[in-house]
Design brief:
The complex is a heterodimer of chains A (262) and B (324).
Chain A: E1 2-6, E2 9-11, E3 33-35, H1 37-53, E4 56-63, H2 68-77, E5 81-86, H3 94-108, E6 112-116, H4 127-135, E7 139-143, E8 159-162, E9 165-172, E10 175-182, E11 185-189, H5 201-207, E12 212-215, E13 228-234, E14 243-244, H6 248-258
Parallel strand pairs in A: 1-4, 1-6, 4-5, 5-12, 6-11, 7-11
Antiparallel strand pairs in A: 2-3, 8-9, 9-10
Helix pairs in contact in A: 2-5, 3-4
Chain B: E1 3-7, E2 10-11, E3 14-15, H1 18-33, E4 36-43, H2 47-53, E5 61-65, H3 74-88, E6 92-96, H4 99-111, E7 115-120, E8 122-123, E9 131-135, E10 140-146, E11 151-155, E12 172-174, E13 186-193, E14 206-210, H5 221-230, E15 233-236, H6 238-242, E16 263-267, H7 273-279, E17 284-289, E18 302-305, H8 308-323
Parallel strand pairs in B: 1-4, 1-6, 4-5, 5-12, 6-11, 7-11, 14-15, 14-16, 16-17, 17-18
Antiparallel strand pairs in B: 2-3, 8-9, 9-10
Helix pairs in contact in B: 3-4, 5-8
Chain lengths: 262, 324
């Protein structure tokens, strides 16, 4: 089975992101970058499937040269080769990213494409669904492994692939859905799908020699026009810390007489 | 002139309240663009949903009711939504940022050759219509411009007041769909609902949330007891869900539910940015944590530095005593 996975470079998910004082963008000084957590789940799931069924994993990122670092991480986790398409984050929208993936998918012909549910910088949660619709494929998004939830047991895998079909458990409002999708299919991974592995040192060394192709939009005949553009940034309303109360009685008094919510 | 089509969110023949927040945003867009608001209900046996949503002043309520749509699939529902959007001549198509909206609406955007803004929280203040949306777990607000003739939106409904009923009931019009379930590349085999008698997390006036500090599924019980005394919904952090204290449906945050109740009480929760992303717009925030340095205190109106195993039962007891 051939699997294509996404490996986006994002700002450290735990960093407190702040805007520059002129509001032109985020303060990137001293900021660390990581592989998008949801993409880690996608790569991990791809590795498990390949290791049990054979095949190849191609990791893809659209980004600046630095994005090669996160592709190397995906390779160190276990992906077989990588493709980076040159692009700047502020010159991308989910639709353009999706159109690039569509071209790569048409060229690579994978059986399964696994994305992260969302990128933790833009929080758009669109690319997997867009790609599936552009290709006319079925999708299983927000795939998870909700152990103990909604009657699932730890024996219920989040994603199974057999007989030309993917069987997936989706986390949705009000419960869990079990869906079947014909291959080739698009999947998006939620954080509880699996526990992503840490690359070992020997695998980090090996990853340096795995192929990483560098491409451009022009190679795929894509015009990099945007449908959605961020034209301004602003700070969300600041919430001030309130007071500390001494005990339950004071808390009840404040909630009743000051906040009037009880 | 714009035509805003609101896609109703529903489950089990009931209109989901979030839809009323989308109608509020739709009315705001209509007011600025001399536009009209219409609603579409898509599914099977959804007559009761159409009746319910017809009370909110839409110029028309379209009903796309077909046995082929009985079971939700992104592929099938996106086709039906795009068909009714074309029929209506919609220039803006908006749905709740529920798992339905997030899953289905990007596919609708492709069909309508539209740009899509996710989790809209408001409109920009400039001349044209722009949409404000949270990025980086809500640490930044971005204002986005959509360059295509049609705009597709999902709406973070906790940010909008529910629309009030208005005027005479809207006329209801049936609309057709070409969806045939057998032709789709995906099928829903089973839906396993989370069963709870408590108020829905995203609709409750009061939310009591528990974190890893609750220690175990058994001791999480004290969160339910406080919630039941307050008639509140129960929420949790990702850490509490991962530790299997509670089901995933109750997670609040960047990757869970977004809540904005009148009162949020969080116990044993450190206040990671991803959790704050889901609750910092509550009107009043109460935090109980034994660590006075916990980041949740930076957003709490009332902080209590104490052991939750002592505080929660005491709070429950005193509230019960008050009620008599
Ligand atoms: C991409 C991504 C997305 C995420 N999405 C979400 C999300 O949607 N929602 C979410 O919640 N998290 C999310 N997280 C996880 C988040 O980063 C934190 O790990 C999580 O919120 C921590 O949960 P917690 O506060 O329960 O646990 P902890 O951080 O471990 O905090 C437990 C707290 O309990 C206190 N405590 C312990 N015992 C007691 C006691 N007896 N009395 C009083 N206080 C006590 C401790 O002092 C501590 O502050 C996400 C993370 C990532 C990377
Ligand atoms: N520039 C990119 N390069 C590679 N993958 C991406 C990129 N942008 C988005 N993705 C993938 O698409 C998913 C959804 O992204 P988004 O719609 O931007 O939230 C992410 O989790 C990634 O897996």
């Amino acid at each position: 089975m051939k699997i294509l996975v996404s490996a986006k470079r994002v700002t450290d998910p735990d960093a407190r992101i702040r805007l520059r004082s002129d509001l032109s963008g985020i303060q990137s000084e001293g900021l660390e970058f990581k592989l998008n957590p949801f993409c880690e789940n996608a790569v991990e799931e791809a590795i498990r499937l390949r290791d049990s069924q054979g095949g190849e994993i191609v990791a893809v990122s659209i980004g600046s040269e630095d994005a090669g670092t996160e592709l190397r991480r995906a390779l160190a986790m276990g992906a077989d080769r990588a493709i980076r398409v040159a692009g700047k984050d502020d010159e991308l929208d989910s639709d353009l990213v999706a159109r690039v993936f569509v071209k790569i998918i048409e060229a690579e012909k994978p059986d399964l494409v696994i994305f992260g549910k969302q990128a933790v910088d833009g929080d758009s949660n669109q690319v997997a669904q867009l790609v599936a619709e552009y290709l006319g494929w079925g999708q299983a998004c927000f795939v998870s492994h909700p152990e103990g939830s909604a009657g699932m047991t730890s024996q219920t895998p989040g994603l199974k692939v057999a007989n030309g079909k993917a069987l997936a458990v989706r986390e949705v409002d009000g419960g869990a859905e079990i869906v079947e999708v014909d291959l080739p299919a698009v999947v998006s991974a939620d954080l509880r799908l699996n526990e992503p592995r840490l690359p070992t040192l020997p695998n980090i060394m090996k990853a340096k020699r795995k192929p990483l192709d560098e491409r451009t939009f022009a190679d795929y005949g894509i015009s990099p026009t945007l449908k959605v553009k961020t034209v301004r940034y602003s700070n969300p309303p600041e919430r001030k810390a309130g007071i500390k109360v001494a005990d339950v009685d004071q808390l009840l008094d404040k909630l009743t007489n000051e906040a009037k919510v009880l | 002139m714009s035509k805003i089509l609101v896609i109703a969110d529903h489950a089990g023949g009931q209109l989901r309240k979030g839809t009323l927040g989308v109608i509020t945003l739709a009315r705001q867009i209509a007011a600025r663009t001399a536009g009209t608001v219409e609603v579409a209900v898509v599914g099977h046996n959804v007559g009761s949903v159409a009746q319910a949503v017809a009370a909110y002043g839409a110029a028309k309520v379209y009903v796309v009711d077909s046995p082929e749509l009985e079971k939700y699939t992104a592929q099938g529902h996106a086709l039906a939504v795009a068909e009714v959007a074309r029929k209506a001549g919609a220039t803006v198509v908006a749905a709740c940022a529920s798992t339905f909206g997030k899953d289905c609406m990007p596919r609708v955007a492709v069909k309508l050759e539209a740009g899509m803004a996710s989790e809209v929280v408001g409109l920009g203040t400039g001349a044209g219509i722009t949409y404000v949306r949270p990025m980086w777990a809500g640490n930044v607000l971005g204002e986005v411009e959509i360059a295509t003739p049609v705009h597709v939106l999902t709406v973070r409904t906790a940010e909008f007041d529910a629309a009030a009923p208005a005027g005479a009931p809207s006329p209801i019009e049936a609309a057709a769909t070409t969806v045939t379930a057998a032709a789709l590349k995906q099928r829903m085999l089973e839906f396993r609902p989370t069963v709870s008698a408590r108020p829905a997390l995203t609709e409750a006036r009061v939310v009591v949330a528990g974190g890893r500090g609750l220690k175990s599924k058994e001791s999480f019980q004290i969160v339910y007891e406080l919630a039941d005394t307050l008639g509140a919904a129960v929420g949790a952090t990702r850490a509490a869900v991962d530790a299997e204290f509670i089901e995933n449906d109750y997670q609040i945050g960047q990757t869970g539910k977004i809540v904005a109740p009148d009162l949020y009480i969080g116990a044993g929760i450190s206040g990671a940015i991803q959790h704050l992303a889901g609750m910092k717009n509550a009107k009043v925030i109460v935090a109980v944590n034994k660590d006075e340095e916990a980041p949740i205190f930076t957003v709490a109106d009332y902080g209590l530095v104490a052991d939750l195993f002592k505080v929660l039962p005491e709070l429950t007891g005193k509230l019960k005593a008050r009620k008599g």
